[in-house]
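Note to self: user wants both folds in one dump. Writing first protein now.
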Amino acid sequence: MTTSYNENTDQEVSLTPPEQEYIVELLKDDFVCTQSASSSISTEEDVELLEFTEASENIFEISLTGISIVKGQTKYNKAYVSSKALYLDISLSWGSARNILSLTIYSPTGVSYGAYKPQSGSNSIVLRVRPKTGTYLQGGYWKLNVFGASISGTEYYTLKAAYHT
């Protein structure tokens, strides 16, 4: 049994079945994970709900472009992933490689993966999330939180995600 925070009632609730484990893998050699998976989830009032649209028969995708962020700011994004998703690809890119953004992924039950940061001199993070066991990702709302770790002025970023069925 897993305990998670229910945002709608401001209470902890017991969830069944237990959290499925995921593998977050690198798609390009340009990131550093600064934290391993944990069971904590933060609450946010300014969560942007993103909607996947059908790109092809087996791919559903979202894209946010030109979103501004400053140092110390977190942009909270939530997107519904189908229970028939085989894996989830996520890409975060921004203008200046001198600025550092990080990405933390939360499964529907609140387990976090990350924060992921780029290697020095890179301005992107590209990841794939897939089940450690079983065939499908857990269906439900996944959070993709972007944090302005080290930014001079204002940075603009693009966040893309696609799940494959």
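First done. Writing the second protein, which came from a different request thread.
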Amino acid sequence: MPGPAVRDVTRWTWKALVLCGALGCSAEPELAAVVDAGVEPGPAPTTCASGSVWTEATGGTGATMAPGYACRSCHLRDAPSVAYYFMGTVFPSLHEADGCDARLAEPSKVRVEILDADGQVRLTLVPNSAGNFMSTTRQPPFPLPYRARLVGPDGTSRMMATPQSSGDCNGCHTEQGTQNAPGRIALP
């Protein structure tokens, strides 16, 4: 009997994430469809490791606002002058809640590397304490598609499996993940 299709898998083991990478995994089912034994089907539990949730009333606006929300789409609507092409949030785990303040321990040691179609690093972004990162231009500074690689404070990394053309990273890296993303952009 064939194994489950990747698109039907909602809980991933670390083995599956290592096999295909936590950033935009789209490996073939026979390579990546590893399901936690004994886990009920359905969404993975959502957490907020920091216990602190951003709200406009308490957190205000600026670079640390709205961690986890689709940054660019909101900025395109409400603040187009700061709708930078690459925007997203790095979290400590895959299923952090919208608005959860990531409170990264060493954000200056974390890097989001944006690679061009040839695999060359074209842009390096560093998240702030809330986990948010952003480029400084509203258009991509090189031809698309791109892939991203997340490098953690200890130097370990995780690379996106599928080339992308949207820089609104949290658009796919939601609490449960969409478009084959397994969840949040999570530290390796």
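Dump finished. Worth passing along: The two ends are 33 Å apart (CA to CA).
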